[in-house]
Design brief:
The chain has 18 helices and two strands. It has a two-stranded antiparallel sheet. About 50% of the residues lie in helices and about 5% in strands. Among the domains are: about 5-80, no CATH class; about 220-300. It is globular, with a radius of gyration of 20 Å. The longest helix is centred in the C-terminal third of the chain and has 17 residues, at about 195-215. The chain starts with a helix and ends with a helix.
């Protein structure tokens, strides 16, 4: 059967890996290796992540099967790129400038959960089944910090499938979620979410907001610079107190560059020049410490 005939149409917020999983089911191939060979002309590893296929030449090879959907559109709608690019600038701000293997791998390393396991919202999975007749792996639950579904106010659940497994096998969400009994769920993680529910919910809402709000050329670091320069909001007594009162943030910054701390101590605004080079998690944490919300940074004029 022609690849394009049974290749599924991407669903809202579906990861590209999930798209490949649904193709595997539709193709009725007896083994994962057969599907991998059809998709990537490889016999064993897909070189893929939960967000995208690597290298991009594989995606270009498949472009004619995407029902007229361009690679750039897939990156925009079916990866975490809209979230990640507001933290990491490119010299060219067009969508196409983000279509590089190096940028996508950096996005994967910065955005995916620390546990590196496939995750989902049970209520979202039920809604997908009722609406589309299939459940699929969504983007937001895979992003680090998204621990509560912003729609259903339910904790995000983890499967036992690691991100390393997706390089070699297809795990269709419909069958995995149906069989997942959560018996191996990290109870410490769930307890932490319960004890800090409001903070995690706000984080989830902020992540969703950035994912929807993002557009090429928008940068969190530039918004922070603008807010500080024009004193648009009162800050938690400037950068120093934010950092000295947060030992985790202090330690992370020390690991990045010890010289940063000396300059921060001498100059309130010096961290602005470093802001865009900090890891995504640190940029978010600083926004919370200074302004109380990432959404406030995005929407203040």
């Amino acid at each position: 059967m022609s690849l394009s005939l049974c290749f599924p149409t991407p669903l809202p917020d579906e990861t590209i890996y999930s798209l490949f999983c649904r193709y595997h089911v539709r193709s009725c191939n007896a083994s994962d290796n057969t599907t991998i060979h059809q998709l990537f002309n490889k016999k064993r590893s897909m070189q893929t992540t939960v967000f995208s296929a690597f290298p991009l030449k594989h995606a270009r090879h498949l472009e004619e099967s995407f029902h007229g959907i361009s690679i750039e559109s897939l990156l925009q709608k079916n990866t975490a790129m809209p979230f990640y690019r507001v933290f990491k600038p490119r010299t060219n701000t067009s969508c196409h400038s983000y279509a590089s293997d190096r940028f996508l791998m950096a996005m994967y390393n910065n955005c995916c959960t620390f546990t590196k396991k496939l995750r989902y919202c049970p209520k979202c999975a039920e809604a997908q089944w009722e609406t589309f007749g299939v459940s699929y792996w969504q983007i937001l639950p895979q992003i680090n910090g998204y621990e509560i579904c912003h729609i259903h106010k339910e904790p995000i659940r983890e499967t036992t499938i690691s991100h390393s497994d997706v390089r070699y096998r297809f795990f269709p969400a419909s069958s995995i979620i149906l069989d997942n009994d959560n018996s191996s769920e990290d109870t410490h993680r769930l307890s932490t979410i319960k004890n800090h529910w409001n903070q995690f919910l706000q984080m989830a809402e902020d992540i969703n907001f950035i994912f929807r709000f993002s557009y090429p050329g928008f940068l969190i670091s530039e918004r922070v610079r603008n807010i500080l320069a024009h004193d648009l909001v009162p800050i938690n007594h400037r950068w120093q107190n934010c950092i000295w009162d947060d030992p985790v943030l202090f330690q992370c910054l020390c690991m990045e560059n010890e010289d940063i701390l000396d300059e921060i101590y001498e100059d309130t605004y010096s961290l602005i020049s470093y802001f865009q080079y900090l890891p995504v998690g640190l940029q978010i944490r600083l926004c919370y410490q200074m302004f109380g919300s990432v959404r406030k940074v995005c929407t203040l004029r």
